[in-house]
Amino acid sequence: MQPLKPAAPAATTETRKVYRVSELARLIKAALENEFGNVWIEGEISNMRRPTSGHLYFTLKDAEAQLAAVLFRGNQLGLKLELRDGLKIRAYGQVTAYEKSGQCQIVVRRVEEAGKGSLQEQFEALKKKLEAEGLFAPERKKQLPLLPQHIGIVTSPSGAAIRDILNILNRRFPNLHILIAPVRVQGEGAAQEIAAAIDLLNARGGLDVLIVGRGGGSLEDLWCFNEEVVARAIARSQLPVISAVGHEIDFTISDFVADLRAPTPSAAAELLVGSKEAFEQQVQRGGARLARALKTQTLVLRNRLTAAAGSYVFREPQNLIRRSRDRLDTLRAAMANELRSAAQQRSQQVDELGLRMGHQIELRRTACRQSLQDANPRMARALRAATQRTALRTQELLLRLGHGMTTARNAAAQDLRRVASQLKALSPLAVLERGFSLTRTAEGKILRDAAEAPAGTQVLTRLAHGSLESQVTASKKEN
Predict the structure, then answer these.
(1) pLDDT band for position 1 (50/70/90)?
(2) Beta-carbon-side half-sphere exposure of residue 126 (alpha carbons within 13 Å)
């Protein structure tokens, strides 16, 4: 390419050649296109933009320089490669200049992949390494404070990010304590400054949370937040760290290590601090709910106290005691009647037995007398002696019988009392008094299994007081 030769200076303004900007821009464009034409160029994609027109605008760069590039929508037909930041490509196209901006660029017509770019390779390698060490694990993430009072910010003191953060914090909660650690956020040595500032704020103490970040930029501009030294500093921080780097589409290693990733610095401030008015309204609503809950609980307890005070038990406690005492007296009288009746029955049985035995003895005496009258005197004496012995034996037996009957009667009375006590404990009526019931079929069979009473069966249910007649509509057997 031959350099443009400006017109030789003239002695007067009438002979001086003066180019208009558009004329010179067209000359530069023509010179570039004529000199280079279509060329192959290799570089790494950066700053990829996809406007609604469908064209692709990006930058091709290497370690020393960069060049603007455009791939028009018509040239994307048949393109199988997904173009993205960090991808290293070989592009074929025409070197030209965009007249309106005067910027040199290449109009790409063909693209081939040349392998991943060095920066992207470094990013992926470090991400894989730190992830394997567990620095991205959710369980190591620290919770942010609900209402932080002391906030540390690691960023550039002259960037737009700090202005956005302070603006939102002051608007939401004006009386917060903000401590700024000024650092470079771009260029050589920036990563070391950021890591040192994080360590310094942790060592200083008195803070609740840290915000680390900067505004948007290219992959190269944000690269310091992809450095391992920054990732290690964030990981060892005792304070919760919010990473707020670039725009929403930008991701850095710091975002993965931090306890929370904010899409922008402004969003970091919004995520960290709520509106003071919103907090006050929430406190007021909570106080109102608490007051209503206490009022409701007090009313419930007052109603329960009123109901208890007006109940039968508390209103007339003596009536309950009197009813229990009357029932006990009734049971005692019934038990005494049962005992007397049993004793009378035993006594009547003894009397009847004595009468029968006396009648038999009298009959035998009469028979003996008749025999004595008919027998000889010696026989009569023997008979009288036998009769006397029989009478004595009879009297002895009567005495033993009377004693035995008395003993048996006392034992029977004691057994009757014991049986009555057991009967009372085992009485179905006592079970019914506790809320149970006894169900029979119409034939009088007691039901113990639901399967014994299919639908349509007429049943009679005995309760503690009264009974119910009903018909089974469905039966279900519980396991």
Answers:
(1) very low
(2) 21
Residue 343 CA to residue 58 CA, distance in Å, equals 121
Question: Which residues pair with residue 36 across a beta bridge?
Answer: none
Helices (H) and strands (E) in the chain, counts: 12, 13
What are the structure tokens assigned to 141, written together? 């993430």
Same domain, 346 and 414: yes
**CATH code, 101:** 2.40.50.140
Is 308 contained in some domain?
A: no
What pLDDT shows up at residue 315?
Answer: 59
How far apart CA 203 and CA 216 sit, in angstroms, is 29
DSSP state of 53: T
Domain count, the chain: 4
Is 305 within the bounds of a domain?
A: no
212 with 155: CB under 8 angstroms?
A: yes
User: Rounded to an integer, what distance in angstroms lies between the CA atom of residue 464 and that of residue 470?
Assistant: 17
Q: What residue numbers bound the domain in which 330 lies?
A: 317-426
Length of the chain: 479
**AA letter at 359:** H
| pLDDT of 177 higher than 70 | yes
Q: For 318, phi and psi rounded to 5 degrees?
A: -65, -30
DSSP secondary structure letter of residue 141: P
Region for residue 37 given its phi and psi (left: phi exceeds 0; alpha: psi -120 to 50; beta: otherwise): left
Q: What percentage of the chain exceeds 70 in pLDDT?
A: 88
Return mean pLDDT, the chain: 83
Picking from 50, 81, 116, the residue at the C-terminal end of a domain is 116
Report DSSP state, residue 177. E
The answer to the question of residue 229 being in a domain is: yes
Contacts 24+ apart (CB under 8 A), 337-343: 338/416, 338/420, 339/413, 339/416, 339/417, 342/412, 342/413, 342/416, 343/409, 343/412, 343/413
d(CA 467, CA 462): 4
**Which distant-in-sequence residues (6+ apart) come within 8 Å of 189 by Cβ?**
none
pLDDT score of 374 more than 50? yes
What stretches of 133-227 show up as alpha helix (H) in DSSP?
160-172, 190-204
Span of 56-60, 98-102, 180-184 with lowest mean pLDDT:
98-102
- DSSP state for residue 83 in the 8-state scheme: -
Residue 446 predicted with pLDDT over 60:
yes
pLDDT of 3 strictly over 60: no
Report residue 252: phi and psi, to 5°: -130, 170
| CA dist., res. 107 & res. 99, Å (int) | 13
Q: Are residues 185 and 323 in the same domain?
A: no
Answer yes or no: do 251 and 109 share one domain. Answer: no
